Amino acid sequence: MFAAKSISADHKDLIHDVSYDFHGRRMATCSSDQTVKVWEQGDDGQWHCTASWKTHSGSVWRVTWAHPEFGQVLATCSFDRTAAVWEKEAGQNHWLKRTSLVDSRTSVTDVKFAPKHLGLQLATLQLSLLEPKQSAPSNVSSGGKVQIHEYSEVQRKWNKVETVVMVAEPVHDVCFAPNMGRSYHLLAIASKELSIISLKPLRKDPAAGGTGISKFEMRQVAVFDEHESQVWRASWNVTGTILASSGADGFVRMWKANYLDNWKCISVLKGDGSTGEGPASIPQNSVTSGAPSSIPPNGAATNGSGSSVVSHEPPARSMNIKRNTGWPWMDIKKDQFKLFY
Amino acid sequence: MQAAMHSVTRVVQDRVSPPSNQTMMFNCDGPVNAMDVDKDMNRIVVAGRQVFKIISIDDDQFTEVVNLRVGKQKNINLSYSAADVAWNHNDENMLASAATNGAVVIWNLGRQVKSKQEFVFMEHKRAVNKVVFHSSEQHQLLSASQDGSMMLHDLRRKQVSLTFKSNSDSVRDVQFCPPSHGYFSFAAAYDSGTVQMWDMRRPDKSERQFTAHNEPVFSLDWHPEDKNWLATAGRDKMIKVWEINKQPAQLAYSVQTIASVGRIKWRPQRRFHIASCSLLLDHSINVWDIRRPYIPFASFDEHKDVATCLIWKDEPHTFLSTGKDSMLIQHIFNDAKRPADSVIPAGIDISIHGDFCCAFREKNNTTSKTKESGSKLQMFRRASSMSRSEQFFSQASSTLSMFQYSRDPNDLGQDMLEFSPVYPCPHDVSMDNFLEMAKNYRLKGQTTEDLCRHNSAVASNIGKTRVSHMWQMLGAMYCTKTITKSTLQVPRTASVTPNTGDKQELDKVKTTLVVSSPDVEIEARADIDKDKKMQNGEISTGSDDDSEGESSEYEKNLANIASGLGHNGDFFFGDGDADIVPYSLGMSIRGNEDWTHLPSEAFQPRHDITGPTAPPERTYATDHDALLVATVESDTLGMPTPTDELELCEQYLNLNIDSAALLMGPVVDFTSVVVETIRFFAEQGDVQTSVSMLIVLGDHVRSHIEEETQENWFLSYIDLLSRFQLWTIACEVIALSHLPQVCQMNQASTTIYTACSQCSRRLENNSWVCDRCKIVTNICCICHHPIKGISVWCQGCCHGGHLHHIQEWLADNSLCPAGCGHHCEYT
């Protein structure tokens, strides 16, 4: 069972994102008050704020952790049209701004680190940061549709391979489930409804070689409108078996598939941790009628799952995870101050 | 000049169907720096480098009335290019403009000649940034210039009456105090970030001053109602509201915007609202509620370039703006974007342990509370807009909640149980099971059977019945006892297994029982049915197709044999609980179960299977099987497979034939169904089970699964283990993997490079002696002896020593013992 505990976040405005780090020891929150706070779980199980600092000159939309292989690194993106990368100084609770990406001409609404193997692949750049949203507004038609993009190493660019046509409403969040050796990918889309899309890579035509765009068999596994209004965020657990979604109705719902691949709600939790029964009596809280087309889908899914990488050779199954050269990779000069796990 | 060539009246219509107020646009044919309206808000003067026009405001359109940039081409000098413009509040014909050449130009619209220029003051030495008329003294014009001075011009005498000098600091903005608050006061903003209050009667010295910003202040605005509030804004992207009645002036509110702020203007009748436009980058005009300084209350995006000037139309729902994009726009509040409505007010994330954290917008119905704090102006507000702004303000906070998972409510602690709500949830949300299994699984060191038995016990301990049973079945299938007693099968097996090359492999092959696929299915089902008489969909799923796909010729042979024996019987092994029921696929599983509690297993076990069972205990349901057993010897010996393997097998068979059990099970090839099961677990996201089974079964199934898939599973599992910081287990898995790509993970990055502690040079050939310094490198800083054994060293300064020496040292000191001054960290 779940026990809810309210934390006094002391953010001065809305909190837009929470994010656990790789090992679940730390958590970061970001807010419209332009700050990011990092929380750590003490030995007593309580969460303490260990760092709080002003990151941007606008609302901070999202915060995300890099793989700890690269050190304690956070990325944030903001209304102020920049994305920033922050690194914790070893032994101190200072977070230093490592870079600020100012390419965008509009609000940067999402930021994600590439999967670890891509990061190491681009080790010369320190971090490979993929910002799907920065380019997305131009090529996404009004109303949020979700597009799946794939990186072609031969062409050295991202190609659109798929458009999710099932979703017509503006999309607030997309989230790939950790692959965990499945032969398919699960994509959760938080829109007006919560949809789960399964993408099964189809066997590639060997004649096409590595240049061909991989095809996916797309299937809508589940659609849920239990939130009755907008679904804001969705998040998978570490094995990709449980999906949690938070909606404008103020509830968190957890979803799970049974062995027959039927997705069902397994738990409904009142989001603010207060005692409240039943979602029926919750007043609708100013759900925007004007669809926020300003929030483009980050479906330009350069997302976390390794699916987006295509290898040179025509693979027997097109799902080919690129390998790095090995375990944490160390350059004595460059990395000597970094904390490795 | 292009602008001059335009006809005097020009109509640009924005929208045709008009309510009284609507968004209107007008193209001024050139970037506009400034504008002002006459006292009745009927006409606008817009001014820029190449624009100087009077435009009338009609109900539904802007109409150009006068173009002041007229005359012969050569006469149009810099005086016609205005940085700022002001309309006299009392004389509707009088305008003043500020030019970049330091001129302050007075225009008289009443002049009958084409050129309306009346007089030019050339007192300022550098560009004039701002001109402003006194609100009631119609002949007093104040100008502020880059040269650091402000001049009060007397328009009747046509001369400068007063000069206010700052300390050589460019004046960016100057504003008279609203007449109700002070007749003689004005405030000036400077490049240095200083704001000064002046009294016109004391031109020698400013009344007071304070540093408002660290960078140039571009704009300031007196609050129209509260005489103690002054807003300033500047290049530091800040809008600040000062309480100037305090000494020193106190910062009451501040708003951080995303770009340098060029102009600010309080919204009339809204105490806390202020509009801003930026100097560069941001093209929108934002209206902020200073009580919620992070998200604009409203945003207007009509301009295609930065807006330069904005003026409210004396009521809070309409304002005019001009921009570098040449446009003059009348904005209506109804058309505003509400950025706060489009933000995502919720965040959620699941930690790897299954706890999750979520942030939600706080829903407090504070309308009544905020009503009290509102000003008396509330009576002017329309109900709808009030609720809007109050709602905006009240939504500005989030709650952050942790949802901690616990199987046992008592773990949560008493206080949590008492004070916080508890939600039921299935157990598999947590990753505890995963950890338990990862830690306790045995993957090597014993026979397959023992490993399976152990792992089965591990799984059943934590309630993973399905996994537990699967392990048990695997143990039974690949039981070594079976092999020794089922050597009768060996020849057949060997003959049909193409990759058996030698005797050694033959031993392994012996463990493989071969039978045609339908029987396999039956076998698997039977075992389950024994428990619950319920068909577990998973095992039969697709096994028909796949095993057929994988079956090769020899399997067909076997199928023939099997069918000849009448394999439609049911084979059992186990406790001999041979109650055979007809199976119906997937029956009763999809019943009307309460879905809020997903069953973690497809079926409920009636009792545990007590360990793997040996073939002698097998019972046979049909007589045909006995027939098979009886004939098996001749069958196998007579099988015409002229291979070496067969010969080997026959030899082996002969050796062991005595020990062969009398009752032999049918020839069963579990491999395809086992492979299917392993795949099934992976598809379900349980890569742990897949990988563990893969390792334990080893060669039995390895060749039947694509290497890429296996690799993918291994990498996923290893990644998962490292997320839980189970490094040892991860390494064990890596080591046990037979995939070269995975095994290599343990071999990469195993080199440790050392550097000389004196010269920081990397030691290439000899890791003990530095070539350059000619010294032995690993000398303890404390005892100065070479270190053998455990040592620590600081990666920052390369100094270190014996572990106990350093420990002693660090007990009293924080700096490096070598005296290099480094704050050593031993991590």
UniProtKB/TrEMBL annotation, chain A:
<feature type="compositionally biased region" description="Polar residues">
    <location>
        <begin position="282"/>
        <end position="292"/>
    </location>
</feature>
<dbReference type="InterPro" id="IPR037363">
    <property type="entry name" value="Sec13/Seh1_fam"/>
</dbReference>
<dbReference type="InterPro" id="IPR036322">
    <property type="entry name" value="WD40_repeat_dom_sf"/>
</dbReference>
<dbReference type="GO" id="GO:0005764">
    <property type="term" value="C:lysosome"/>
</dbReference>
<dbReference type="InterPro" id="IPR015943">
    <property type="entry name" value="WD40/YVTN_repeat-like_dom_sf"/>
</dbReference>
<dbReference type="InterPro" id="IPR001680">
    <property type="entry name" value="WD40_rpt"/>
</dbReference>
<feature type="region of interest" description="Disordered">
    <location>
        <begin position="274"/>
        <end position="323"/>
    </location>
</feature>
<dbReference type="GO" id="GO:0005635">
    <property type="term" value="C:nuclear envelope"/>
</dbReference>
<feature type="compositionally biased region" description="Polar residues">
    <location>
        <begin position="300"/>
        <end position="310"/>
    </location>
</feature>
<dbReference type="InterPro" id="IPR020472">
    <property type="entry name" value="WD40_PAC1"/>
</dbReference>
<dbReference type="Pfam" id="PF00400">
    <property type="entry name" value="WD40"/>
</dbReference>
<feature type="repeat" description="WD">
    <location>
        <begin position="8"/>
        <end position="40"/>
    </location>
</feature>
<keyword id="KW-0653">Protein transport</keyword>
<keyword id="KW-0677">Repeat</keyword>
<protein>
    <recommendedName>
        <fullName>Nucleoporin SEH1</fullName>
    </recommendedName>
</protein>
<dbReference type="GO" id="GO:0015031">
    <property type="term" value="P:protein transport"/>
</dbReference>
<comment type="similarity">
    <text>Belongs to the WD repeat SEC13 family.</text>
</comment>
<keyword id="KW-0813">Transport</keyword>
<keyword id="KW-0539">Nucleus</keyword>
<keyword id="KW-0458">Lysosome</keyword>
<feature type="repeat" description="WD">
    <location>
        <begin position="224"/>
        <end position="256"/>
    </location>
</feature>
<keyword id="KW-0853">WD repeat</keyword>
Automatic annotation (TrEMBL), chain B:
<dbReference type="GO" id="GO:0008270">
    <property type="term" value="F:zinc ion binding"/>
</dbReference>
<dbReference type="InterPro" id="IPR037590">
    <property type="entry name" value="WDR24"/>
</dbReference>
<dbReference type="InterPro" id="IPR001680">
    <property type="entry name" value="WD40_rpt"/>
</dbReference>
<keyword id="KW-0853">WD repeat</keyword>
<keyword id="KW-0677">Repeat</keyword>
<keyword id="KW-0479">Metal-binding</keyword>
<protein>
    <recommendedName>
        <fullName>GATOR2 complex protein WDR24</fullName>
    </recommendedName>
</protein>
<comment type="similarity">
    <text>Belongs to the WD repeat WDR24 family.</text>
</comment>
<dbReference type="InterPro" id="IPR036322">
    <property type="entry name" value="WD40_repeat_dom_sf"/>
</dbReference>
<feature type="repeat" description="WD">
    <location>
        <begin position="210"/>
        <end position="252"/>
    </location>
</feature>
<keyword id="KW-0862">Zinc</keyword>
<dbReference type="InterPro" id="IPR015943">
    <property type="entry name" value="WD40/YVTN_repeat-like_dom_sf"/>
</dbReference>
<feature type="compositionally biased region" description="Basic and acidic residues">
    <location>
        <begin position="525"/>
        <end position="535"/>
    </location>
</feature>
<dbReference type="InterPro" id="IPR019775">
    <property type="entry name" value="WD40_repeat_CS"/>
</dbReference>
<feature type="region of interest" description="Disordered">
    <location>
        <begin position="525"/>
        <end position="554"/>
    </location>
</feature>
<dbReference type="Pfam" id="PF00400">
    <property type="entry name" value="WD40"/>
</dbReference>
<keyword id="KW-0863">Zinc-finger</keyword>
<feature type="compositionally biased region" description="Acidic residues">
    <location>
        <begin position="543"/>
        <end position="552"/>
    </location>
</feature>
